[in-house]
Structure formats: structure tokens, C-alpha cells
Design a protein that fits this description.
mainly alpha; 87% helix; elongated; DUF1641 domain-containing protein
Length: 184
């Protein structure tokens, strides 16, 4: 009776192999055998490494000392988690900063860009006005130093008071004094 059961189960097994989906699965499994073997070898190496580390008392002692002497506490772990949460924003800022640095380095390395930047800055009205004021101050200084110093009479000062430029300057001075003296 035992031989008939073995014969019947043998035929069932052969009938299973004749099914196309079983043949397809076996073909796929055969193709994947090198990958499976490689994964098993990796697991085996990992197990062997773990076993050798657990047997190495010096390595375990060094690891324990590092953990013991570290200032890893709940507050530090929370701070690390918060910092990890902000990493995308920090990364974006660092990337922007890096782009700016690359741009500035390229401009500083390019003589034409520097010349263009200097020309555009020189053409700005505020800079031009400042330059004109400095030129006038230099002219005034040169003229004052080159002419002999004379005594100025009160009549000369009164005459200057009629000059519109002096009147405008005095008006600015009076307005500035009013603003400075005004209490908030």
C-alpha cells in the first residue's frame, strides 16, 4: 500500500511541473539563483562579522566607553531631531550661498565684468553727485589756500546774506536744527 501512495504522489508532482505558471516560476527562480546566492553570502558575512565583534572584548569595551563618555542625553537627541527636520531648509540656504559664492568668484575673475560693474556704479546719480561735491570741495580748498587771507567785514557778510545760495543753505541749516531739537 505504501508503494501505491508514493507512485500516486510522484505523478501529482509531475503534473504540477507541466503547468505553464509553475514552469514560468521555476525559470524565474533559476535566473535569480545567482542573486539569491550573493544575498545569502552577504548575510553570512554579516553574521560572521557580528559573531567576531561580540567575541572581541576590546571592541565591546571601547564602544561602551565611547557611549559612557558621550554627552548624549534626551535634550541632545531632541535637538538632533529638530536639526534633522530643518535640514532641507538649511540645504537650500547652503546651495544658494554656494551659488552666490560661485557667481562672485566668477565676476571677480573676469576683468570685463569688473569693468562693466565699475562703469555702471560710476554712472549712478548719487555717486555722480557725491563726486561733484567732492570736486567742489577740492576746488574750494585749493582756492582758499592759494589766495591770501583777508579780513572780512560785517558789510561783506551782509552782502553775502542777499545771495540766494547762502539763503538756501541757511534755510537747510535752520530746518536741520529744528529737526534735531524736536523731541519725540
Amino acid at each position: 500500500m505504501a508503494s501505491t501512495y508514493a507512485d500516486v504522489s510522484k505523478y501529482d508532482w509531475l503534473q504540477e511541473l507541466e503547468k505553464p505558471e509553475v514552469q514560468e516560476s521555476l525559470t524565474y527562480l533559476i535566473k535569480k539563483l545567482p542573486d539569491i546566492q550573493q544575498a545569502m553570502d552577504s548575510v553570512d558575512h554579516l553574521v560572521q562579522f557580528g559573531q567576531s565583534v561580540t567575541k572581541d572584548q576590546d571592541a565591546i569595551q571601547q564602544l561602551e566607553e565611547r557611549i559612557t563618555y558621550s554627552t548624549l542625553n534626551e535634550e541632545n537627541i531632541e535637538a538632533m531631531i529638530k536639526l534633522l527636520g530643518k535640514m532641507p531648509m538649511l540645504l537650500e540656504m547652503v546651495e544658494r550661498l554656494e551659488q552666490m559664492i560661485v557667481f562672485v568668484e566668477s565676476v571677480l575673475g573676469d576683468r570685463e565684468s569688473l569693468d562693466s560693474l565699475y562703469r555702471s556704479m560710476s554712472e549712478q546719480p548719487v555717486l555722480q553727485q557725491g563726486k561733484d561735491v567732492l570736486d567742489k570741495l577740492d576746488t574750494i580748498k585749493e582756492k582758499a589756500e592759494s589766495t591770501p587771507q583777508e579780513n572780512i567785514s560785517i558789510f561783506a557778510v551782509l552782502k553775502w546774506m542777499k545771495d540766494p545760495n547762502v539763503q538756501k543753505s541757511l534755510h537747510y541749516i535752520q530746518t536741520a536744527l529744528d529737526v534735531f531739537n524736536k523731541k519725540d
